Amino acid sequence: MDEIIILAKMMTWKCALVNIPFGGAKGGVVCNTKQLSEGELRRITRRFTSELADNIGPHIDIPAPDMYTNEQTMAWIFDTYDVLHPGKNNRPVVTGKSIEMGGSLGGNEATGNGVCYVTERFLSKALITDSRSLERVKVVIQGSGNVGSVAAMSFSEKGAIIIAVSDSQGGIYCGIGLESSELRLFKEQHKSIVGMPNTLR
Amino acid sequence: MMNGEILHLECDLLIPAAISNQIHNGNTDEINA
């Protein structure tokens, strides 16, 4: 619950600072999504959306995906809301939709890429002595989800060296640098980056 | 290496891209970024 309260506060500030009319709230369900079937996740999401009732809406408050939620989750929220509010264009009720449902290109990568862009801008202002760009900069990333994995790709493309990453199962290290595309592939195949060849745990 | 221990590694940039509150009063002395 504390996590959601913190996220709600941050959301309030973020939306207000850049004048986006998305409100300032967060909602969530306390559960371990990794232990739930797709059917269970769908039913939980639909019931959660029903309980939210008219506290959300295209002109009221617009849910966006966060931890352990994705395009599928947002599609379930939209569909449930749409059933409860027939005859209207309800697609704007959620962000983070798939492209097919009217979502935005680059939405999945936005936060991870944003981390890299902001860091690059920060360094370009010479706020850290002797580091004006990301070239050859050694980077450690805690997290390999939607943000961390995309950030790793983005930093690598800018010439940084990813020396360590982690996920909920643990961390791996490689002093000469990890290949971000191989990291993503290994994670997709094994559900964790731990155990990737030629790395130290 | 545990997930939290990665925060202690020597590096130029440390990116906390998991959940919030990973860097706090109790571990700032161990950050080597």
Report on the architecture of this protein:
The complex is a heterodimer of chains A (201) and B (33). Chain A is globular. A three-stranded mixed β-sheet of chain A has the order 1-2-3. Chain A is mainly alpha-helical. Chain A has six helices and three strands; from the N terminus they run ααααβαββα. Chain A has helices at residues 2-17, 38-52, 71-84, 110-124, 146-157, 180-190; strands at 138-142, 161-167, 170-173. The mean pLDDT of chain B is 88. Chain B has one strand at residues 13-16. With 33 residues, chain B is an all-beta fold. The interface between A and B is medium-sized, with 34 and 20 residues.
Topology:
The complex is a heterodimer of chains A (201) and B (33).
Chain A: H1 2-17, H2 38-52, H3 71-84, H4 110-124, E1 138-142, H5 146-157, E2 161-167, E3 170-173, H6 180-190
Parallel strand pairs in A: 1-2
Antiparallel strand pairs in A: 2-3
Helix pairs in contact in A: 2-3, 4-5, 5-6
Chain B: E1 13-16
Summarize the structure in short.
The complex is a heterodimer of chains A (201) and B (33). Chain A has 201 residues and is mainly α. Chain A has helices spanning 2-17, 38-52, 71-84, 110-124, 146-157, 180-190; strands at 138-142, 161-167, 170-173.
Keywords:
heterodimer, A: 201 residues, mainly alpha, 3-stranded mixed beta sheet, 6 helices, 41% helix, globular, B: 33 residues, mainly beta
Question: Roughly what is the average pLDDT of chain A, rounded to an integer?
Answer: 91
Largest sheet of chain B: none
Name the biggest interface: A-B, 34 and 20 residues
Low-pLDDT segments of chain A:
none
Assembly type of the chains comes to heterodimer
Beta-strand portion of chain A reads 5-15%
Q: Could you name the ranges of chain B where pLDDT drops below 50 across 5 or more consecutive residues?
A: none
Classify the secondary structure makeup of chain A into a structural class: mainly alpha
Number of strands of chain A: 3
Task: Please tell me how large the radius of gyration of chain B is.
Answer: 9 Å
Assign an overall shape of chain B: globular
Query: Helix share of residues of chain B?
Result: under 10%
Helix fraction of chain A, binned, reads 40-55%
Tell me the total number of β-strands of chain B. 1
Query: What integer is the average pLDDT of chain B?
Result: 88
